Amino acid sequence: MAASVATKTAWKLQEIIAHSSNVSSLVLGKSSGRLLATGGDDCRVNIWSVNKPNCIMSLTGHTTPVESLRISANEELILAGSQSGSIRIWDLEAAKILRTLVGHKANICSLDFHPFGKFVASGSLDTNIKLWDIRRKGCVFRYKGHTQAVKCLRFSPDGKWLASAADDHTVKLWDLVAGKLMFEFTGHTGPVNVVEFHPNEYLLASGSSDRTVRFWDLEKFQVVSCIEEEATPVRCVLFNPDGCCLYSGFQDSLRVYGWEPERCFDVLLVNWGKVADLSMCNNQLIGVSYAECTVSSFVVDLSKVKKSGSVLHGLIRDDKPLIQPIPTGSSLRRIYDRPSTTCSKPQRVKHNSESERRSPSSEDDRDERESTAEIQNPEDYKEIFQPKNSISRTPPHKTEPFPAPPEDEPLTVKEATKPSQTVDIQTPLPKQENPDPVQMPPIASSTPVSRAEPSVIPATRDQPIGLKASDFLPAVKNQSQTEIVDEEAMSQIRKGHETMCVVLTSRHKNLDTVRAVWSTGDIKTSVDSAVAINDLSVVVDLLNIVNQKASLWKLDLCTIILPQIEKLLQSKYESYVQTGCTSLKLILQRFLPLITDILAAPPSVGVDITREERLHKCKLCYKQLKNISNIIKNKSGLSGRHGSAFRELHLLMAVLE
């Protein structure tokens, strides 16, 4: 062993509480790798400096959760798209709203800044792509072709093309000058989550939920290679600045790829969960992820990462001789032609006068009044965003690499910090005026947040509820004990295994029972059997199927389902609440007018058995809906996604009051 202290290749840098409710989006600045923006269900956009605990600026104005974010190349502007389809552009230097763009009819799923001009692109759940001129506050062009949500947009380095990735399994390339589709790349078998242009060559990379990374030649419009041995969906990709390799972020891992031929240079285990974005600075890769209201940042030392070479690392499907990689600087493909008269970074949208920042309409003035930029940390704001004359300014002005912590006891795999308080590298908070004897983890927040146990268990959790990982790990009796007997380790791993098998076997048996009845075509009887089992998880599974086909719903089905919905809405599990809200919304939209009309109708003359049965069912449904309306009313004051869902239901049920 060498005498010098070994340092880690990957480690956890910091964890912060970013919002008072769930985080719904986040993005890193690509120029400095030090600027972080987070969007939340609290409808705010919070700006952070990576590895600093306090929020620099909080941007308000959106009225629905912020679903997509993008920072401009010079890190002076930020785009934020909301669940309602509106887009807001803030000037971070001036700390004010610049533009509000309205036109999409559903969630904004993706955004990007044009590399040279004053344009931005937006992709939405409404399947449309819009190109906006931010100087005129207007939509320049609309691109139609996708059939599902547009998840990622990227302009080409020369600014002539726009690549789009969507849930319809396709990648499309659009010609901005001609205003039409150039080519549609097919081959993915699942939603495409991300696309990225090579920094120099006519090459495009795409990552999908089908767990593959594909490389596309933009001259021949054909696939160059496909890497398909991964175990989890591809969440984000980033080319090395010199174009020698592609970094791909997966669940708890980073992989480094080459494409001619397809090969994996390196694999690193990084405990970042579902990583959301990557950036580079000072030969370090910064990765960020979020869960509930917390955001975590991680660092990978790229000087220790293999980026090229003929010796393959990790997965590779190679039964043919390896072709030596093309040396950096030479290319098999055409190079982008960038305008020589244009700066490499977009100039700020600051022209003749202050009035040019404003739209002449009164609506924009109202948006400016409603949208605010609250500077919460003046020192960091002045350091990062205060206007400077230097064209090459990037926040912060000079950055140093993050210091790597010392390596743990000898490891066989390059590995990031595991989530334990004894190992996490945290940045200490500034001194608090109120001394507290209890040591708290270094958590920053834009608003005061209590750390009580959540009343609703999120559907996106990555840990089992009610179980501690430490219960399944052998206890270390002393620090020097580093090896564990195989039998002891296996006995610990198997702890509780039989109980879990019994639970899953019972669940499977119950679902088989419901499925057998369902196959007869009698939906009502299958729902009855699911309710009779007295297991809400089975009811949720069945409702998730029925909710997808509104034609299956009948009035007699509502009488059975509504009591179950009442239980689901009061469940502590987020997925149960979501399913309950979806089912209730369907019932209200399809049957509430019918129920109120039948109850308000005058009594019929004579005997009408069918009408009497329908009236009885309507009375029963009305009574159950009245009970549920009290629950909805009490929960409509909640913040975030649940609050907005309950408020929508409360409006639909207003006729009951």
TrEMBL record:
UniProt function note: Participates in a complex which severs microtubules in an ATP-dependent manner. May act to target the enzymatic subunit of this complex to sites of action such as the centrosome. Microtubule severing may promote rapid reorganization of cellular microtubule arrays and the release of microtubules from the centrosome following nucleation.
Name of the molecule in the record: Katanin p80 WD40 repeat-containing subunit B1
Region (Disordered): 327-440
Family, similarity comment: Belongs to the WD repeat KATNB1 family.
Top-level taxon of the source organism: Eukaryota
Compositional bias per record (Basic and acidic residues), positions renumbered to this chain: 351-372
Subcellular location: Cytoplasm, Cytoskeleton, Spindle; Cytoplasm; Cytoplasm, Cytoskeleton, Microtubule organizing center, Centrosome; Cytoplasm, Cytoskeleton, Spindle pole
Keywords carried by this UniProt record: Cell cycle, Cell division, Cytoplasm, Cytoskeleton, Microtubule, Mitosis, Repeat, WD repeat
The protein's assembly and partners: Interacts with KATNA1. This interaction enhances the microtubule binding and severing activity of KATNA1 and also targets this activity to the centrosome.
Residue ranges occupied by any Katanin p80 subunit C-terminal domain in the UniProt entry: 495-653
GO biological-process terms attached to the record: cell division; microtubule depolymerization; microtubule severing
UniProt GO molecular function: microtubule binding
Organism: Alligator sinensis
Cellular component GO terms, alphabetical: centrosome; cytoplasm; katanin complex; microtubule; spindle pole
HAMAP family hit by this protein: Katanin_p80_B1
WD repeat locations: 16-58, 59-100, 101-142, 143-184, 185-226
Pfam families per UniProt: Katanin_con80, WD40
PANTHER family with a match to the protein in the record: KATANIN P80 SUBUNIT, KATANIN P80 WD40 REPEAT-CONTAINING SUBUNIT B1
Main location: cytoplasm
